[in-house]
Write a structure and sequence with these properties.
Helix content is about 45%, strand content about 10%. By secondary structure, the protein is of the alpha/beta class. The chain has five domains: about 60 residues; about 110 residues, no CATH class; about 260 residues, Alpha-Beta Barrel (TIM Barrel); about 250 residues, 3-Layer(aba) Sandwich (Aldehyde Dehydrogenase, Chain A, domain 1); about 190 residues, Aldehyde Dehydrogenase, Chain A, domain 2, CATH 3.40.309. Strands 1-2-3-4-5-6-7-8 form an eight-stranded parallel β-barrel, surrounded by six helices. Helix 1 crosses helix 2. The C terminus is likely disordered. One of its GO terms (biological process) is L-proline catabolic process to L-glutamate. Oxidizes proline to glutamate for use as a carbon and nitrogen source and also function as a transcriptional repressor of the put operon. It holds the Pfam family Pro_dh.
């Protein structure tokens, strides 16, 4: 049904009446207007006599005669977001509700569902014992597979040598230049204690490999070893590094071949024939991870199409159960496969999925949709549902789907799949796996501060879940064809018994991974007369070049190396077989008896909120892939948009009314977010007097009480997250993820400083400065604003807060929260206004005892000059803590993984529209990988969506105002004029294009420079400069970076520790970061240095650099080392491979111990 937009002109008073009436019934103005129209229209159509409304007539009389012209509707913030919330059926709502349910709720239910009746349980245990005993008593596996399995068993991932091997396997085969490959080999082997492994393994191959690695290690080591080692060095040294490179390269290729069936689908099909003759079946997986670009997605699409043709021909009519099949990853078919891009996924990815499925049907081969990360589960179910109701696929049972038993939602997903199969009148192929993303699921939940984990924290809980889910699948053979993927003998034996002895073809099948499960399933596949179990097994067979096996190989190595892995434990002869084949239900019940409750989480894996133990709480996040959370957020945002926010001077005494100025949404000029009034000169003086008068009272407050107030503020702020997000999105142009991170960072600041003073401060020994002025920036108007204030308040200072003139509304809410928490009105005061008026009046006053500033280098330098000669009554200098800009660089060598580099560069350079002091400004690429990296980066940039941040789909919002936009565009034009290559790309649609014209948007921009020193100053926006460098000239590149005079951040992407040491040894920055999303901390022109007596905590998210005489660095940082460093809050929080010493804090301002 088509729609059109009609509108009438309303005066402001009428519009406010409608908004007010709608808010009273918790509805939007649009809803109310529609109800009124339909109500009036219905009465007219029923010929009811209605009085004419004078207000309506007068409005109509004033309208233009040209009524046919479209009239723009009033802008309704967050309405589009509300319209993007997806309705859910009862079964789908149950799935979402179980996403992060407590294990103490989930596990007891699973125990009853997974329990085997006594006779079956005994039979399963007996069979499992027999299978395990045969597997352990087998002679050492022969051939290449046995060699590599022995190697992986010997060098576990808990050892330095095991990690070195994994790093080599991960990187060596994709490094294009010999120099970097030699450096990686030298770096990883020289530090290994290979000698300790000699003679420990019965495998001749492992001992030979160990001796080889030992020799190589001694050759490349710079340390003197025993005389034997020196002799070995001389022998091996005669061959030189090229021979070592060749040997290690061959070893790594051997390891890769253990897990890859063939480099091409034709080779894989040929290699599969041997086991197919024994009765095994295959499901082929074309190696490759998530696509980052449209070109990647198209390449994977072609690869899948070619594979289906080849597999289909090889199947030769054997059908979906007896013949080979294919497994596909949806993330490989689209670069933006996520909930945030739902419409694009349905419009662009779904036709590709449908096309591949129709092609599979043409050959009658099964096609399985692989399981991926937890936040992609529900969108994959939407795609599956749509696929099941395609008329062209009616009556065909070859559609498959993979589910993960380690997810708490898994039983509910099965309920939904059974319902889907019933409704679509088909039998679905369901592969049940335990799950391969456990580490990343735990890490993501911790980083994002979510309420719980989507997966079980104990392996035995997953084993119980697997059995419970298996029973549900076996219970509906007419609707589900179960495919049980497991290497665990007890799981295998239990399913064998549960399914019954009357097996028939097409009832169910087992599955295993190529290179890992064949020894076990050779006891299963085959005739009973030959001592087998006569049950089918399908081998999951990866296909691809060794250079593409990275992520898959790492997952398999982690799986092999885990001490809870059956594959790992079966080879441990010290482990009794009874323990190895124990019933997981009995194991959990025994655990419950010991701990007093069933389902307690792993004692060493605290909930995300409890990461810091008793020290403080981790700030709470918000899952933007969870439909229930999105619906709740939408309601809160719509309500927040009805409020007209105000920022008035907030002093100890009530202030007079004055002229108010509108605060406009930088993405949408029609959106008046609220109003601000600048503080007058008289109010500044009044505030200073109050700050002086209240300073002794606040200082006399015990540190523990000050800490308690800050903790209360943190709780209040967290509870108001949706409201604060709404202001941040509209006033500061933050995307949803950025706004969440900003609120979390502000909460972290409050918790952090509360903990600091509670544990370390004493009013007798730690004296405050007095009134402190806090001048905060617009790019982190809540996080940095709160951090400055929290530091000063915690140390016992009274605070005069001047927010950025572009973002006073969010600052006013922050102060209101502090006041509500218990900070006295005269201790914290808000003074909105311009820097040249309010800011100048505050910082120039002799009564001010300290200044905290975040902003431009020019202003910081001016402040430094103004207070340089100022002394307090005791003759001590006035402290200035200033954090400014930076020319932040990232150095990338050829050992870095290009996909990870591109992900990190996109986040660091373009997130927050590049408006971070720590944002990446110059990307330095080693020549050998520059073209490849830039091609992928340009493609990924083209997939970003720029527009109104009030939509979930937006990746890049506006820059803060028209002046910022003009400055950035002037720089881009100057670079073009100099002949530099400028690339700008962003995904465009008609709605976005309209917004770009009216809002202050700058598309992500890539500019190639001839050298680093071409860039003379920071460009504060979504502009990334690129320089290329030769590996031999790395030192020269670092010298150019140093010569810029800035020293805020520096990132290094490499797998080589030697390169890290080389860069960190000469770079003059606050803190270089390996594998960064953001670099961290700075000095030189990136901060103002002044000697002063200031207590300064080094655990700082911001780069407030000082040289205090009482510098006291904090102790260990734990998980915080993984948080992506940045200026204030950072979107997405910690990124994978990010590192750096970060916590929620800057300087706790106060006198040191006296």
């Amino acid at each position: 049904m088509g729609t059109t937009t009609m509108g009438v002109k309303l005066d402001d008073a009428t519009r406010e009446r409608i908004k007010s009436a709608a808010s009273r019934i918790d509805r939007t103005p649009h809803w109310l207007i529609k109800q009124a129209i339909f109500n009036y229209l219905e009465k007219l159509e029923n010929d009811e006599t209605l009085p004419e409304l004078p207000a309506l007539l007068s409005g109509a009389a004033n309208e233009s005669d040209d009524a046919s012209e479209p009239t723009e509707e009033p802008y309704q913030p967050f309405l589009e977001f509300a319209e993007q919330i997806l309705p859910q059926s009862v079964s789908r709502a149950a799935i979402t509700a179980a996403w992060r349910r407590p294990e103490t709720d989930a596990v007891p239910m699973l125990l009853e569902q997974a329990r085997l009746p006594q006779p079956l349980g005994e039979q399963a245990h007996k069979l499992a014992y027999q299978l395990a005993e045969k597997l352990r008593n087998q002679k050492t596996a022969s051939g290449r597979a046995g060699m590599v399995q022995s190697l992986l068993q010997e060098f576990s991932l808990s050892s330095q040598e095991g990690v070195a091997l994994m790093c080599l396997a991960e990187a060596l085969l994709r490094i294009p230049d010999k120099a970097t490959r030699d450096a990686l080999i030298r770096d990883k082997i020289s530090n290994g204690n290979w000698q300790s492994h000699i003679g420990r393994s019965p495998s001749l191959f492992v001992n030979a490999a160990t001796w080889g690695l030992l020799f190589t290690g001694k050759l490349v080591s710079t340390h003197n070893e025993t005389s034997l080692s020196r002799s070995l060095n001389r022998i091996i040294g005669k061959s030189g590094e090229p021979l070592i490179r060749k040997g290690v390269d061959m070893a790594m290729r051997l390891m890769g071949e253990q897990f890859v069936t063939g480099e091409t689908i034709a080779e894989a099909l040929a290699n599969a024939r041997k086991l197919e003759e024994k009765g095994f079946r295959y499901s082929y997986d074309m190696l490759g991870e998530a696509a980052l670009t449209a070109a990647d997605a198209q390449a994977y699409m072609v690869s899948y199409q070619q594979a289906i043709h080849a597999i289909g021909k090889a199947s030769n009519g054997r059908g979906i159960y007896e013949g080979p099949g294919i497994s596909i990853k949806l993330s490989a078919l689209h670069p933006r496969y996520s909930r945030a891009q739902y419409d694009r996924v349905m419009e662009e990815l779904y036709p590709r999925l449908k096309s591949l499925t129709l092609l599979a049907r043409q050959y009658d081969i099964g096609i399985n949709i692989d399981a991926e990360e937890a936040d992609r589960l529900e969108i994959s179910l939407d795609l599956l549902e749509k696929l099941c109701f395609e008329p062209e696929l009616a009556g065909w049972n070859g559609i498959g789907f993979v589910i993960q038993a380690y997810q708490k939602r898994c039983p509910f997903v099965i309920d939904y799949l059974i319902d889907l199969a019933t409704r679509s009148r088909r039998r679905l192929m369901i592969r049940l796996v335990k799950g391969a993303y456990w580490d990343s699921e735990i890490k993501r939940a911790q980083m994002e501060g979510l309420e719980g984990y989507p997966v079980y924290t104990r392996k035995v809980y997953t084993d119980v879940s697997y059995l419970a889910c298996a029973k549900k699948l076996l219970a509906v053979p007419n609707l589900i064809y179960p495919q049980f993927a497991t290497h665990n003998v007890h799981t295998l034996a239990a399913i064998y018994q549960l399914a019954g002895q009357n097996y028939y073809p097409g009832q169910y099948e087992f599955q295993c991974l190529h290179g890992m499960g064949e020894p076990l399933y050779e006891q299963v596949v085959g005739k009973v007369a030959d001592g087998k179990l006569n049950r089918p097994c399908r081998i999951y067979a990866p296909v691809g070049t060794h250079e593409t096996l990275l992520a898959y190989l790492v997952r398999r190595l982690l799986e092999n190396g885990a001490n809870t892995s059956f594959v790992n434990r079966i080879a441990d002869n010290t482990l009794p077989l009874d323990e190895l084949v124990a019933d997981p239900v009995s194991a959990v019940e025994k655990l419950a008896q010991q701990e007093g409750q069933a389902g307690l989480p792993h004692p060493k894996i605290p909930l995300p909120r409890d990461l810091y133990g008793s020290g403080r709480s981790n700030s709470a996040g918000l899952d933007l892939a969870n439909e229930h959370r999105l619906a709740s957020l939408s309601s809160s945002l719509l309500n927040s948009a009805l409020h007209k926010w105000q920022a008035l001077p907030m002093l100890e005494q009530p202030v007079a009314e004055g002229e108010m100025q509108p605060v406009v949404n930088p993405a949408e000029p029609k959106d008046i977010v609220g109003y601000v009034r600048e503080a007058s000169d008289a109010e500044v003086q009044q505030a200073l007097t109050s700050a002086i008068n209240n300073a002794p009272i606040w200082f006399a407050t015990p540190p523990q009480e000050r800490a308690a107030i800050l903790e209360r503020a943190a709780v209040l702020m967290e509870s108001q997250m949706p409201t604060l997000m709404g202001i941040l999105v509209r006033e500061a142009g933050k995307t949803f993820s950025n706004a969440i991170a900003e609120v979390r960072e502000a909460v972290d600041f409050l918790h952090y400083y509360a903990g600091q003073v509670r544990d370390d401060f004493d009013n007798e020994t730690h004296r405050p400065l007095g009134p402190v002025v806090c001048i905060s920036p617009w790019n982190f108007p809540l996080a940095i604003f709160t951090g400055q204030i929290a530091a000063a308040l915690a140390a016992g200072n009274s605070v005069l807060a001047k927010p950025a003139e572009q973002t006073p509304l969010i600052a006013a809410q922050g102060v209101a929260i502090l006041l509500e928490a218990g900070v006295p009105p005269g201790v914290i005061q808000l003074l909105p206004g311009r820097g040249e008026t309010v800011g100048a009046a505050l910082t120039s006053d002799e009564r001010v005892r300290g200044v905290m500033f975040t902003g431009s280098t020019e202003v910081a330098t001016l402040l430094q000059r103004n207070i340089a000669s100022r002394l307090d009554p005791q003759g001590r200098p006035t402290p200035l803590i200033a954090e400014t800009g930076g020319m932040n660089a990232m150095i990338v060598d050829s050992s870095a993984l290009t996909e990870q580099v591109v992900i990190d560069v996109l986040a660091s350079a373009f997130d927050s529209a590049g408006q971070r002091c720590s944002a990446l400004r110059v990307l330095c690429l080693q020549e050998e990988v520059a073209d490849h990296t830039l091609t992928m980066l340009r493609g990924a940039m083209s997939e970003c969506r720029m527009g109104n941040p009030g939509r979930l789909t937006t990746d890049i919002g506006p820059v803060i105002d028209a002046e910022a936009k003009e400055n950035i565009e002037r720089h881009i034009q100057a670079m073009r004029a100099k002949g530099r290559t400028v690339y700008q790309a962003v995904r465009e649609n008609s709605e976005d294009a309209r917004e770009w014209r009216h809002g202050t948007f700058v598309p992500p921009t890539l500019i190639e420079l001839d050298s680093f020193d071409e860039l003379k100053k920071e460009v504060f926006g979504p502009v990334l400069h690129v320089v290329r460098y030769n590996r031999n000239e790395l030192d020269k590149l670092v010298e150019q970076i140093n010569a810029s005079g800035y020293g805020l951040t520096l990132g290094v992407h490499t797998r080589i520790d030697e390169t890290i040491a080389q860069v960190t040894g000469s770079a003059k920055v606050g803190k270089p970061v390996r594998q960064p999303q953001y670099g961290w901390r700075g000095g030189r022109r990136s901060a103002v240095r002044r000697r002063r007596v200031v207590r300064y905590r080094s655990e700082s998210r911001r780069s407030a650099v000082s040289v205090p005489s009482t510098l006291q660095p904090s102790a260990g940082r734990g998980w915080r080392d993984l948080r992506p460093p940045g200026c204030g809050a950072s979107a997405g929080r910690p990124a994978e491979n990010a590192a750096g010493k970060t916590a929620a804090g800057a300087a706790a301002v106060g006198r040191g111990p006296s």
